[in-house]
Design goal:
Layout (H helix, E strand, L loop, with lengths): L15 H16 L10 H17 L15 E2 L4 E2 L5 E3 L4 E3 L4 E3 L4 E3 L4 H31 L3 H33 L4 H5 L15 H9 L17
Antiparallel strand pairs: 1-2, 3-4, 5-6
Helix pairs in contact: 1-2, 3-4
Subcellular location: Membrane
Keywords: Acyltransferase, Membrane, Transferase, Transmembrane, Transmembrane helix
InterPro entries: Palmitoyltrfase_DHHC, PFA4/ZDH16/20/ERF2-like
């Protein structure tokens, strides 16, 4: 899990002048009285035009937009237009590509660059849990059959904790396998992304979704096997 977190490429960062204009519009938004949803505020029209013009000047294409404003998603902290599936991580302090979640157990964002390794960590952990539980059961049977009751009780306590840990890991695997089958993320599972194109979806079918995330081969090995043309 030492793989660097996937950061946003520099072409998505706005220039100083564009950032200043967007900051001014944000200030205008805070000072402007709320209007009806039918009426589009002037600041919103200007913001939308600025973001679209900047994206066009850089040759950037986006499918994901803000649901309530239909604007491109802009991060005022990082001063960039968020690529599709990108979200700002408050714990890390910057925007992350294909943000899944910030994992508290490894204190790192699970993202585009390390999702495969996160899945492998879960699968390896589940395999270790199954092996440990099976050997614990074997030892438990042996000690009870040979009258070593004290050691048997120790093994029972250890087995209970290992079962709880194994159940937790397997449940997390089940959840992330279901996400991978549909090419979703934990973040998108909580809030469905709003795409500007009717019928658009990140789901490419189960087989292609797994290939997209894990590559064409060497899935079981902790080596990078992503498609080179992914962006």
């Amino acid at each position: 899990m030492r793989t660097p977190i996937a950061r946003v490429p520099k072409e998505y960062y706005v220039d100083e002048e564009t950032g200043r204009k967007l900051d001014e519009l944000k200030l205008n938004k805070e000072q402007t009285p709320k209007t009806s949803k039918v009426e589009i505020p002037e600041w919103l029209e200007k913001k939308r035009a600025i973001l679209e013009a900047f994206a066009a000047s850089r040759g950037l294409n986006f499918a994901e937009i803000e649901e309530d404003t239909n604007c491109l998603r802009y991060c005022y902290v990082c001063r960039l237009i968020k690529p599709d599936r990108c979200h700002h991580c408050r714990a890390c302090g910057f925007c992350v590509l294909r943000y899944d979640h910030h994992c508290p157990y490894i204190y790192k964002c699970i993202s585009y660059s390390n999702y495969k390794f996160f899945l492998l960590l879960l699968f390896y952990g589940a395999a270790l849990a199954i092996w440990t539980i099976s050997t614990e059961i074997q030892g438990l049977v042996y000690h009870f059959m040979h009258g070593a009751l004290y050691l048997g009780i120790q093994l029972v306590v250890g087995l209970i904790f290992q079962l709880l840990g194994g159940i937790f890991v397997i449940d997390v695997i089940r959840f992330h396998v279901s996400l991978t089958n549909t090419n979703d993320t934990t973040c998108e599972n909580d809030k469905v992304p709003y795409l500007r194109f009717e019928g658009a979806s990140y789901d490419m079918g189960i087989a292609q979704n797994w290939k997209y995330l894990l590559g064409r081969r060497l899935w079981i090995l902790p080596v990078s096997t992503r498609y080179k043309d992914d962006n």
